[in-house]
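Exercise 7b. C-alpha cells:
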C-alpha cells in the first residue's frame, strides 16, 4: 500500500526517484 503512495510522489518529483525508491524499499 505504501509503495503505491511513494510511486505517485516519486513520479511527480522525477523518474529517477521512482527507480531509486523501489529498490531502496
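Sequence design result:
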Amino acid at each position: 500500500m505504501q509503495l503505491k503512495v511513494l510511486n505517485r510522489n516519486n513520479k511527480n518529483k522525477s523518474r529517477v526517484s521512482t527507480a531509486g525508491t523501489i529498490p531502496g524499499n
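Instructor comment: Residues 1-25 form one domain. Residues 5 and 16 are 16 Å apart (CA to CA).
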